[in-house]
Amino acid sequence: MAGNSIGKEFTVTTFGESHGKFVGVVVDGCPAGLPLSAKDFQEELDRRIPAEPKIVSARVEKDTAKVLSGVFNGFTTGAPIALMVENKETDSSDYEAIKDLPRPGHSDYPARIKYGGFNDYRGGGRFSGRVTVALIMAGTIAKKLLSRYDIDVFAYTQSLGKVKTDKQFSATEIRKNKNAAATRCPDLVCAEKMEEAIINARKEGDSLGGVIECIAFNMPVGIGEPLFDSLDADLAKAVFAIPAVKGVEFGAGFRAAELRGSENNDAFLLKNGKVVTSTEYSGGVLGGLSSGMPIMIRVAIKPTPSIAKEQKTVNLSSMENAALSVKGRHDPCVVPKAVPAIEAAVAITIADHLIRSGFIPKVLKEH
Ligand SMILES: Cc1cc2nc3c(=O)[nH]c(=O)nc-3n(C[C@H](O)[C@H](O)[C@H](O)COP(=O)(O)O)c2cc1C
Q: For the chain, which terminal residue's Cβ has fewer other Cβ atoms within 10 angstroms, N or C?
């Protein structure tokens, strides 16, 4: 089966390419009775493009969602919801010049081999970060669904290149400064340094990566379907679908390997009649099930592959060694744009599991 879908009960299937006519998504299995309109998608679509032109690609699109099906009289009907955004800002000229010169770090070479050269290479085609628009639209529905149960999913930039914030943020702090900085870091002093780092990398014809932390607050206990659909496995799968993601860790993550059990175990304690843990090294997942503590995921994003600095490649037409300096419109760092995409992937997976477990019913009660 082609790999364009995620989810078992709340399924998300994306379609579209970077320079095609549309990017879109079909969400099937959304419960009936959720209030939904095209306007609901605007905030998240706008959030994808940080307002500071110095740190993003010159391809700035005012995306507007069209709801094609699955909504009637302002509520979801329980039928598949099809959503679409038009690609208006396409300029494929730079890609014709490099169609035989695969960009190091990008999908061009393996995609050309896998699809026998029939793949749409313009703007990276199906492999472009542009396809995260589809994920973000599906994520908006998932987040709306989760908010009925007071479950909030927030992501923010924790580090960018070598600039890192060591602050721990509460839900309120992240919400307050969610869009305050173009780099999407709620520590505004650090955010400024991050912006500078991107601008400097761009000046040198280079790019930067970073780490995004995503937290889901107010999770119920026991959500997940071990072994193979465990909550952490499904979350990692959804997050890894986002281009440029190179690592995912929960809680202490790789650091847990250096700790002793006495340090890494999250001790249980009673707080206001509720079982909680004193630390959060497990990242809110134990045995593939939610523990009831916030789910904490950190995602490593690599530096943008398309850079102006000259790199070695191979001309696949003449089969000779070649040099490539990528021109055109590219993000010097994809981290800020990836923040809402990570939130979306996490919210979609949690919504899917809450529906699978029966925690969210197939028909919603009036709210
Ligand atoms: C939101 C977003 C925007 C992106 N923008 C660019 C870009 O402008 N130029 C580029 O070369 N890669 C960009 N990427 C990254 C590539 O799509 C990605 O590195 C490529 O498809 C190869 O996949 P991989 O990095 O997962 O191996 C972007 C990724 C995301 C998530």
A: N
